Structure formats: C-alpha cells, structure tokens
TrEMBL record:
GO MF annotations, alphabetized: GTP binding; GTPase activity; translation release factor activity, codon nonspecific; translation release factor activity, codon specific
Domain Tr-type G: 11-279
Similarity section: Belongs to the TRAFAC class translation factor GTPase superfamily. Classic translation factor GTPase family. PrfC subfamily.
Organism: Lacticaseibacillus sharpeae JCM 1186 = DSM 20505
Role according to the record: Increases the formation of ribosomal termination complexes and stimulates activities of RF-1 and RF-2. It binds guanine nucleotides and has strong preference for UGA stop codons. It may interact directly with the ribosome. The stimulation of RF-1 and RF-2 is significantly reduced by GTP and GDP, but not by GMP.
Annotated keywords: Cytoplasm, GTP-binding, Nucleotide-binding, Protein biosynthesis
Cellular localisation: Cytoplasm
GO CC, one annotated term: cytosol
Residue intervals passing through the bilayer: none
UniProt binding sites for GTP: 20-27, 88-92, 142-145
Protein name per the record: Peptide chain release factor 3
Length: 525
C-alpha cells in the first residue's frame, strides 16, 4: 500500500468501545448501529438472551452455560465513508480485566446511560479508565420512551459523579408516553418521535430556534418546557468546546431510545463526524509512532483461548498502531526478538469470522496463536525495534486461595498457572512468608474462566477458596515490617516480588493508616 493510500485508509477509521452498566442498552444500540452499517438485517441477531442464540456460535462452553459473552469481540462496518470498528466489552456484571484492556485499544468511547437510572456503578468504573486515557467520550442517554429522570439532572450528574462537563447536543421534548421528539441543537431541527411519514421526521427550526406555530408539537406543553430548558442551557450551561471533547473534558450528550431506534441515527452521524481518527502511540523511549508511518506496528491487548474447543485455538487481538497489515507478512515480536509470519488472521464480524487480508492503523486483527503472544506485546515489521508503553495494570478487587486438587499433578498445575498468569487471565500473588498461591481479579468471572481453562487446557483440577473482596495497596519494601500484617490486612507479594496488603475493608485501611501514618500505600489503576 503506498503512502497516500495508507493515509486515506487510516483517515477513514473510527475505533471505539461502548461502556455501560448492564441493562442500560448497550447491546440494543450496538444492533441498531449494525443495522445502519448494513451488517445485519434485523434486530435481535447479535445477542438473543432468551433465544439461546449462542448455540450457533462456537464460543467457550462457559459462555453457553451462562448465556453471556465472556470476552470482547470486534464488529466492523462501513458508514458514510468511514470504517467503524466497535470493540465490544462484556455487558455482564461479572466483567474482567479484558474489559479494561479493551479500552486501551480504542480512540473514543460511547457511554450508554439508562435515563431512568442515571450513572450506575459499572459505568463509573469504566469511565474512570477511559478518562485516564484522555480520549473523547460520547454519551447516549437511553430509554427515552420510558419515564426517566429530569434531563437537567442527568446532565448535572455527569459533572457531579464523573467530573466531566456535559454538553447536550439535543434535548427531549417529553418522555415516556408523552415523548414527542428531540430538539436538535446541532442540526437546528426537531426530530419527531412518531412522524406520520418519513418525510415528516425532521422539522426545521426558524432563526429564533422555534417551530412554526401551527406545528402539532408547538402546541404541546412539553415543547414549551423543552424551550425553557434550552434557554437555560444556552445561558447558563457549558459552552460547546471541540477541544475539550477531544481531550475528554467535555462529553457531547445525545438523548434517544435504542429500542425504538429513535435518535440513534442522529447520534451515529454526529459521532462519525466528531470522533477522532486513529491516534499516535508512545513507545517506552518516549517517541510517538504515527498511524500513517508506513511500517506496520501493533500491540496485543487481549488473548482469547478456546474460541473453538474443537481446534484448541487461541486468538491474539492486535490493535494496529501504524502502517498496514498484510496477510503472510513477517513481523518481529519485540519481547523475544523472534520473527513470526502472520499467515492466519481473522477478523470478527457480528455473525461470522472472515479472513482478513488487509487492515490498517486503527483496525483490530485477530491472529491465531500457538502460544507466542502475551498481553501487552508489541509486534512490528522491518528493522529497528519498536516497544510500546506497557498496558496499565489494574488493581484487583477479588481474591481466592488456589491449590491443586490432586497433589500428584503439581507439574501441570504449575504450568497452567504460569501460562494463564502470563497471559493476563488473572493476577497471581503469594502470601509473603508461606508462599501460598492467591489469585486476584477485578471480576468473579475471571476465576471461573481460570478454573475452567485449568481443567480443560492443562488437565488440572483446582481447589479455590474465596478470600472475598479486598482493597489491594502496594507498600514500599523499605517501609515494610512483617509485623504490620494481620488477618485484616493480609501481606502478600506480586509476581515481581513487590509487597502489598490486602485490606479487609476501608475501615481496616484507615486503621492501618492511623497506626502507621508515615507509610505510603499506592493503588494501581
Ligand atoms: P445491555 O447490553 O447494556 O446489558 O442491555 P440490552 O441492550 O440487553 O438491554 C437491556 C434491556 O433494556 C432489554 O430488555 C432491552 O430491550 C431494553 N432496552 C434497551 N434499550 C431500550 C430503550 O431505548 N427503551 C426501552 N424501553 N428498553 C430498552 P429486556 O427485557 O432485558 O430484554 P428483551 O427481552 O426486551 O430483549
């Protein structure tokens, strides 16, 4: 691919993830986006919670058993001259580090909020990770077809709970049973909820931002209330700032209803317009690799094992940072210096796996892996080593003691343990003096996947006893005195032999800090 062609292709990419609390409507909106992208023809094909659609795919057994998506997948479609990559993140309560890492591979995020519930726990956690990256965050306030909270409250909550400015791109006229439409500030029009014909879907506003007096919506009290709100927003609300949006300091807010496909197209059009192209990425040396650099480079952000149990395959998901990927190309794996031929690649669509031949910066490719790759690995083509900054580590919140059930099978236990930990499936700790294994995760599901894979891939049955939810804090080894450890603040070490405490709760941590005021405790991301 020549330089001009590469630049043109890269400029078309828009790569993002949708973050939300379970049930806010992430799957429903994803389906609507896929409909607009022409990938699927009817809603309900991506996830049929109740229809058992998973039986059709060959994902992990555990997924089938629980009827949820364990790991993120990638959806790709073309829309208005742009190639959209949506990196899906598990929509289940039991999410995992995979979800966090997926957010390291996107250039923007869409936050879906249930307008009746406002900002919920999981949204808050995921938001924090995205915010730290300083990438644009677009907000979709969903379920407008139901009675929800006051729109002004929802906007205020963004600032109060998340510390991000909200700028309403459009404003609901009524909600639930009396939903009439959206006042579109950006496009200077009203979008009707129930237009008699498609031609009547949009109504233009006059120079004063008003509908003609004889328009049926103009007669509604909800319309007048919306105008009052808009006036308030114009006078006292946040000023629209593209700069702030690109830095992630302001979020454009779109109202709508994914289920009734209301406001979704307006959202998508604005998103495609405003979302950034693939960004450059820093190397450990501090250089930036621009996406249009003609040399291919990328990093592994996720490894998914056993997508097809019959083949025992693992897929390493690579975010392309620069250049173009071509099937059969040779790349160097920076960590080992080994050359690898990338001949087997797959790309993930909503319903099928299709072999990808070319992909450019911004795209995600799934590579069949026979155990070469680890999470965070950099791969590059050509001469001159490239190593991207390591992926951040996330502070685990749940802990388990783990032992091999069969003492005769220690070898496979240790092998499986080592490989799965390297892969980043779970975090491994050992008690400080007795060296017992303790696993840490951000979601319960990670333990279940770990147990399942130990048995299925390493033939090792593991015994796990829960320690429960703990707050992990690292301590400078210089300041450590083993006497500081107690059952309320268990002392362990991580895989780099760094000491940390697992505090039973916030109270135990406060007690510790009061007792040892000079000791500095640190959390990871
Ligand atoms: P998730 O992926 O974020 O977990 O949410 P999902 O899209 O599965 O939506 C959760 C529930 O909310 C679903 O209902 C879905 O139909 C509903 N929903 C999504 N968007 C809207 C909306 O704009 N308005 C209304 N009223 N409902 C919405 P469910 O009862 O769990 O499943 P289903 O049997 O209806 O599919």
């Amino acid at each position: 691919m020549d330089k001009n062609e590469l630049a043109k292709e890269v400029a078309q990419r828009r790569t993002f993830a949708i973050i939300s609390h379970p049930d806010a409507g992430k799957t429903t909106i994803t389906e609507q986006l896929l409909l607009f992208g022409g990938v699927i023809r009817e809603a309900g094909t991506v996830k049929g919670k109740k229809s058992g659609h998973f039986a059709k795919s060959d994902w992990m057994e555990i997924e089938k058993q629980r009827g949820i998506s364990v790991t993120s997948s990638v959806l790709q479609f073309d829309y208005h001259g742009k190639r959209i990559n949506i990196l899906d993140t598990p929509g289940h309560e039991d999410f995992s580090e995979d979800t966090y890492r997926t957010l390291m591979a996107v250039d923007a995020a869409v936050m879906v909020i249930d307008s009746a519930k406002g900002i919920e726990a999981q949204t808050k956690k995921l938001f924090k990770v995205v915010k730290k990256r300083g990438i644009p965050i677009f907000t979709f306030m969903n379920k407008l077809d139901r009675d929800g909270r006051e729109p002004l409250d929802l906007i205020a909550e963004l600032e109060e709970l998340l510390g991000i400015e909200g700028y309403a791109m459009n404003w609901p006229i009524g909600s639930g049973k009396v939903l009439e439409g959206l006042y579109d500030r950006k496009n200077h029009r009203i979008e009707r909820y129930r237009p008699a014909t498609e031609d009547q879907r949009f109504a233009a506003l006059d120079a004063d931002g008003k509908l003609p007096a004889d328009d049926p919506i103009a007669k509604e009290s909800t319309y007048r209330a919306a105008l009052d709100d808009i006036e308030l927003l114009d006078d006292a609300g946040n000023q629209f700032s593209e700069e702030k949006i690109l830095r992630g300091d302001q979020t454009p807010v779109f109202f709508g209803s994914a289920l009734t496909n209301f406001g979704v197209e307006t959202f998508l059009d604005s998103f495609v317009d405003m979302a950034p192209e693939p960004s450059a990425k820093k190397t450990v040396g501090g250089d930036e690799v621009a996406p249009t650099t003609d040399r291919f480079s990328g990093f592994v952000f996720k490894i998914q094992a056993n997508m097809n149990p019959a083949h025992r395959d693992r897929i390493a998901f690579v975010r392309i940072v620069s250049g173009a990927f071509e099937r059969g190309m040779d790349v160097t794996l920076n960590r080992t210096g080994k050359t690898i031929r990338l001949s087997n690649s797959t790309e993930f669509m909503a319903d099928s796996r299709e072999t990808v031949n070319t992909a450019v910066a911004g795209d995600i490719v799934g590579l069949y892996d026979t155990g070469n790759f680890q999470i965070g690995d950099t791969i590059y083509a050509g001469k001159g080593a490239v190593e991207f900054e390591p992926l951040p580590q996330f502070t685990p919140e749940l802990f388990m003691r783990v032992t091999a059930k069969n003492v005769m099978k220690q070898k496979s236990f240790h092998k499986g343990m080592q490989q799965l930990v390297q892969e980043g499936a779970v975090q491994l700790y050992r008690t400080y003096t007795t060296n017992e294994y303790i696993l840490g995760a951000v979601g319960q599901l990670q333990f279940e996947v770990f147990k399942f894979r130990m048995l299925n891939e390493y033939n090792s049955e593991v015994e796990m006893t829960t320690i429960g939810s703990r707050t992990a804090r690292w301590i400078d080894p210089e300041q450590l005195d083993e006497k500081m450890s107690s059952s309320r603040n268990l002392l362990v070490k991580d895989i780099h032999d760094q000491p940390l405490f697992l505090f039973e709760n916030a109270f135990a941590m406060r007690w510790f800090q009061d007792k040892y005021p000079d000791v500095k405790l640190t959390a990871k991301l």
